[in-house]
Amino acid sequence: MVRPILPYQIRIMNKSIYLFTFLLFSLVSFAQETTGRLEGKIVDIKNNPIEFATIVVTDVETNFKYGSTSQTDGLYTINNLPPGINYKIDVSFLGYAKESLLNVTINLGATTVKNFTLSEENQSLDEVLMVRLRGIYFGHRLFQY
After folding, report:
1. Is 116 within 8 Å of 40 (Cβ atoms)?
2. Dist. CA 103–CA 85, nearest whole Å
3. Which of 50, 71, 91, 128 has the fewest beta carbons closer than 10 A?
4. What's the rounded Cα separation, in Å, for the pair 69 and 61?
5. What pLDDT digit, counting tens, does each position of 17-47 carry?
């Protein structure tokens, strides 16, 4: 003889189906991650943050470059980096010596943290050339007087 399914058993089965579906979609969403992330902080020797420093990440195998600038607190983030083991990071800012880091590894779905300390460097300009044209532009033509 077959026992009928009671209403509380139906509720339990529905909850089980919902839980299974939720877990299945959670696993699928994790499987779709295809990139990594690089972040860190850029400071000077006195541990003051350097804002607007230029960060260039180069994939040495393909020579493809990714770039960013540091924020006012010295923090930077570069998202959507393909995973790889052969990245080069260059950090530069006017008045400071350029820092480079080779063989940086970016892992799939992970955040790689690389901090930099830049030292001051005196730089001088050779010359500044200023040119003044006398004339009036009308459209694309220059009328000199």
Report:
1. yes
2. 6
3. 128
4. 23
5. 777 777 777 665 555 678 999 999 999 999 9
For 66, the token pair is 């990714």
Q: Is 92 exposed, middle or buried (0-12, 13-18, 19+ CB in 10 A)?
A: middle
Q: What is the pLDDT of residues 47-93, one digit of tens each?
A: 999 999 999 999 999 999 999 999 999 999 999 999 999 999 999 99
Residues 69 and 101 sit within 8 Å (Cβ to Cβ): no
**Residue 21: in which H helix or E strand, if any?**
helix 7-31
One-letter amino acid at 42 equals: I
Q: Which amino acid is at 91?
A: V
Q: Judge contact between 84 and 59, C-beta under 8 A.
A: yes
> Can you say whether residue 31 is alpha, beta or left, with left for phi > 0 and alpha for psi between -120 and 50 degrees?
alpha
Residue (of 77, 59, 80, 56) closest to 67 by Cα position? 56
* Residue 93 DSSP one-character state: -
